[in-house]
Amino acid sequence: MSSTPSTAAARPRAGAAVFRAEARLFRREPGGLFGIFVFPVLLLVILGCIPPFREANKELGGLRLIDAYVPVSVLLSMIVAGLQSMPPVLTGYRERGILRRMSTTPARPAGLLGAQMAIHGAAALCAALLSLAVGRLAFGVALPRHAAGYLLALVLAVLVSLALGALVSARSRNTKVTNAIGSAVFFPSMFTAGVWVPVQAMPHVLAEIVTWTPFGAAAQALNQAAAGNWPGWSHLGVLALWTAVLSAAAVRWFRWQ
Q1: Average pLDDT of 23-32?
Q2: Cβ neighbours of residue 7 under 8 Å, at least 6 residues apart?
Q3: Residue ranges per structural domain of the chain
Q4: DSSP the chain
Q5: Closest CA to 81 of 38, 48, 21, 44
Q6: Which pLDDT band holds residue 120 (cuts at 50, 70, 90)?
Q7: Tens-digit pLDDT profile for residues 127-173
């Protein structure tokens, strides 16, 4: 049955109310806030306190290891937001029947999904700015020299992390499965982002393979923009392609109930 004019008019207000409610709930979740905002910055500070990390490294073209780890910290916030924070919330809503009940109200389930993606995307971007600020103020890491290219790479990295999280939510029957799948994808994502070894320091063959992954391509794009160059179109293309493929798969398999 088609929507009445009054129902259609109520949906924007209902969507805004859902967004405000989800934002309040997000602020009250200490685990998600710690993982997105504190954990990546804490890792950056710990590494920056190690003297060899503050010395120029020939393998990195004269950069210090701490310089290479700022983009890693930026990506880590996005990985946590996309894989550890958002999927359990969406799956929990489906598991408890909240999405099914919302389908009978002006606040459509799609509005809830959009609110969650907007909130976690904004949080990841704010956490990225926090990592850049801490790197600059605490360890003298230069700010990105190509701001526009860096911003574009950041936005694409956020989109691909949210698309990956949406796919995890789509393929999970309950929160236990969500946590299992999220953890299984989380650690390889951290590796390709360069958490254990920066992409620039990886062996050539491994680095070439990693740059075809979402976060490996994002790491290279961010590094290039930080050095003052426009991110390689191949890396941006890999990010855009992964975003499109993961989003299409999430839409294909996502179930509200």
Answers
A1: 90
A2: 106
A3: 5-253
A4: -PPPHHHHHHHHHHHHHHHHHHHHHHHT-HHHHIIIIIHHHHHHHHHHTSGGGGSB-GGGTT-BHHHHHHHHHHHHHHHIIIIIIHHHHHHHHHHTTHHHHHTTSSS-HHHHHHHHHHHHHHHHHHHHHHHHHHHHHHH-PPPPSSHHHHHHHHHHHHHHHHHHHHHHHHT-SSHHHHHHHHHHHHHHHHHHHTSSS-GGGS-HHHHHHHTTSHHHHHHHHHHHHHTTSPPPHHHHHHHHHHHHHHHHHHHHH----
A5: 38
A6: very high
A7: 999 999 999 999 999 999 999 999 999 999 999 999 999 999 988 88
**Token pair of 11, please?**
């949906």
pTM: 0.89
